[in-house]
Amino acid sequence: MRSLRDQEFAEFLIHIDDGVEPTKPDDMVRLPLHIAIPWEGPTSWEYLLTNNGMTFSTFKKSAEDRGFLETDHSIRDCLVEATSLRMPYAL
What we know:
Blueprint lengths: L1 H4 L1 H11 L27 H5 E2 L2 E2 L3 H8 L5 H14 L6
Antiparallel strand pairs: 1-2
């Protein structure tokens, strides 16, 4: 955990718990820029929808294309293979 290695961050967390640092109504806090870890990668939703030059209509389709999720067809294909190897009552 970062709070174990970064004393300044640990103190910031203690100030939040003590009520010294302000929070928003949904208990979110804004990290000071000198504490925040900068992000230099992609920042758009369009990037998440695009893979190998193809833009998908949903995040699920994009994740399936990237191999993060299995398609619904993989379950069906598994059952078809199982029925070809054994009689249906053995499944």
